[in-house]
Amino acid sequence: MTVQLTRVSIVTETYTPEVNGVANTLAHLVKGMRLRGIAVQIIRPRQNRHDVDSIEVEEETVTLPGLPLPGYKELKFGLPLKSRILSALQRFKPQALYIATEGPMGWASVKAASACKIPVMSGFHTNFHQYGKHYHLGLLENLGYRYLRYFHNLTAGTLVPTQTQRDELETHGFHNVSVMSRGVDSQMFHPAKRSTELRRKWGVNDNDLVLLYVGRIAAEKNIKLAITTYQQLKAADDRVRLVLVGDGPELAHLRERYPDIICCGTQRGEALAQHFASGDVFLFPSLTDTFGNVVTEALASGLALVSFDYAAAHEHTQDGVNAMLAPFGDEAIFVQRAGLLLDSPNRLRNIRYAARHTAERISWHTIVDEFLQHLAAARPEEIANGTRETNTAKSRITVS
């Protein structure tokens, strides 16, 4: 018999107003649960010294001390304060716990939930194990999968955004992996929000072609490929411009080295929607994302997507129909596919139209329903006493 959930706890190292894919996804899930009358408890690191706990009927927030994440100084990982987490769970009495991040706080939360016999599901939101080479953390890359597998296999199941991600994790020994995709707010992100005034602020006119990048300005996002694409296209057509929206460790360097690139910093809400809609082509050069919420936001905004054929692009687009796709990791083809949009205004127009049509079929409402079904199906006995027996392997893992 499926449990009707009325109280859910979420443990995460990042949450709004922080700007990243994990925080964005959780914000939509929480909003959807609250609209269904479900009380939600958020357990997360303290974001700044003014950050305090709050207890509301619909959403309770519990903040814990944290330390800056290497390479992500604007984010923190929570300390493994099991007693604090246990107290919070015992007070809130959730019927299910969702752990979105695998840091020390998440580890302590698995132990605390086990003590309370609360069902736990985990999410694989970020390929942090692939970030090591970008931040001189070779140990992270080498040990990443071993730790992540051990962590996730302690929970009743792991949610991933794509079938490709599920196949990859199962190949590496992860058990009970299920796909829960992502939605997009196609009313928030809409071609009608295109702003002539904003384009003038950028110094571009109606005849210019704006390549847009939205995301973290960082090495692990392969930002250098966006710049390479821009430079090669601009060499062929002087009307091409590149607009970067976001912040990160590479931003200051890029501003200094490439003064012709338009850098807009972090944008939120309506301003972000206007920036999306005011572009023409969306570049998604990343090779490390598990999904890429900005991809579906770009589709909803009516932009022509140029991406490698993986993650959100693989799930929702077809090369030459509603996007331009390159084989995974083939940077030369990536640039070539972007160039084809310059050669044919009709192709560009048709792909933009098809992109919007695709996004209109992607709903957060459906995703929230799927999320709740996964949580309700989890069983506390699968992690009781700190142990979990998988359906595909009889070995038992014990947490001290």
Automatic annotation (TrEMBL):
Any GO MF annotation of the entry: glycosyltransferase activity
Keywords: Transferase
Gene3D superfamilies: Glycogen Phosphorylase B (3.40.50.2000)
Pfam families in the cross-refs: Glyco_trans_1_4, Glyco_transf_4
Domain Glycosyltransferase subfamily 4-like N-terminal span(s) in chain numbering: 19-186
Name of the protein described by the UniProt record: Group 1 glycosyl transferase
Species, as recorded: Thalassolituus oleivorans MIL-1
